[in-house]
Amino acid sequence: MADVIIIGSGPAGVSAALYTARAGLNTIILSMGSGALAKAEAIQNYYGFSSPVSGQALAQAGIEGAKNVGVHFETGEVVGVGFDENLIVETAAQSYQADFVILATGSPRATPRIPGIEAFEGKGVSYCAVCDAFFYKGKNVCVLGTGEYAIHEIAALQPVAASITLLTNGEKPSAELPDGVMVNTTKISAITGDDRVEKVQLADGTEIATDGIFVAYGVAGSTALARKIGAQIDGNKIVVDENMATNVPGLYAAGDCTGGLLQISKAVYEGAKAGMEISKLARKIR
Ligand SMILES: Cc1cc2nc3c(=O)[nH]c(=O)nc-3n(C[C@H](O)[C@H](O)[C@H](O)COP(=O)(O)OP(=O)(O)OC[C@H]3O[C@@H](n4cnc5c(N)ncnc54)[C@H](O)[C@@H]3O)c2cc1C
Q1: What is the Å distance from ligand 1's center to 209 Cα?
Q2: Could you tell me which residue ranges the FAD/NAD(P)-binding domain spans (predicted)?
Q3: Would residue 115 count as lying in a domain?
Q4: Each residue of 92-105: pLDDT tens digit?
């Protein structure tokens, strides 16, 4: 059991961790490695450098600094967040519990550009199996994805759906599939239907009749994780108050995932704000 789990080791997550660890809270950062920052070749608009610094070097220095104050780093792809008595963070391998969780997962992932996907959102296209599986009791559903995140969504659907087909849209599945799940690797040309999703049209001219499609492409992004735990989102950003708190008690968000200025300085500020707020609250409940 950790005091604080931070998902993401970019400027927002690491900045938050500096505050919580220095306040004496047991802090774990879970991440899949570098985010947007490492993609920046040279940064010239961040305080404190006489000449441009590479994003990779800045990210590494931030992580080293956090390790030096006792932040514990673990590598893992977070596929779900939830709660029972405590907040729960799930990777494919493990489930973690914490009093506080900070989502610092960067910009939301792009959804695949498949005609019909946006038009049928909420009409058969879902981004959260935990939230919507029950509506598909006894129905035939598809999950769009290839990896651990898709497998996590399949696990939530298996107890209720009549059949599940994994659609990989031209890619190879990258995780082991549970028994009983069908796979179709053909590229998808469109999702069609009348008022609701009815069919997936494939590039080879065939089609699959379906009642619903769960999008779990790539890695679970910030909005997908927020949806799972019932945190409010607005478009593709997580809604937070002035202390970076979401509407879910104990759950905070910081950095690119809250929208606005997509810059290091803003991510660092929001991380600091979330970290300070959590440190203050933790002192009160102890
Ligand atoms: C090419 C490029 C150039 C840029 N140049 C500049 C610049 O010059 N100046 C500037 O101020 N800003 C620049 N930026 C923007 C800056 O990099 C971002 O604003 C900043 O990195 C946001 O920090 P963050 O912590 O919110 O997210 P990120 O840095 O994106 O970190 C996200 C973290 O979340 C982790 N993560 C995501 N999903 C999961 C999951 N499911 N499970 C586990 N971990 C997960 C990732 O592994 C990563 O550790 C640039 C961005 C890019 C792409």
Answers
A1: 38
A2: 3-271
A3: no
A4: 889 999 999 999 99
Distance 250 CA to ligand 1 centre (A): 23
Residue 114 lies in a domain: no
pLDDT tens track for 196-244 = 999 999 999 999 999 999 999 878 888 889 988 999 999 889 999 999 9
CA 90–ligand 1 middle distance (angstroms): 21
Cβ contacts of 186-192, under 8 Å, gap ≥ 24:
188/112, 188/114, 188/144, 189/114, 189/115, 190/114, 190/115, 190/116, 191/114, 191/115, 191/116, 191/117, 191/119, 191/120, 191/125, 192/116
Nearest ligand 1 atom, CA 76: 43
Binding site membership of 239 for ligand 1 (Cβ less than 6 Å): no
Among residues 215, 237, 260, which one ends one of the domains?
215
Residue among 263, 266, 268, 273 to mutate when testing ligand 1 (max atoms within 8 A of CB): 263
Last residue of a domain, one of 215, 241, 276: 215
Is 277 close to ligand 1, i.e. is its CB under 6 Å away? no
Number of domains in the chain: 2
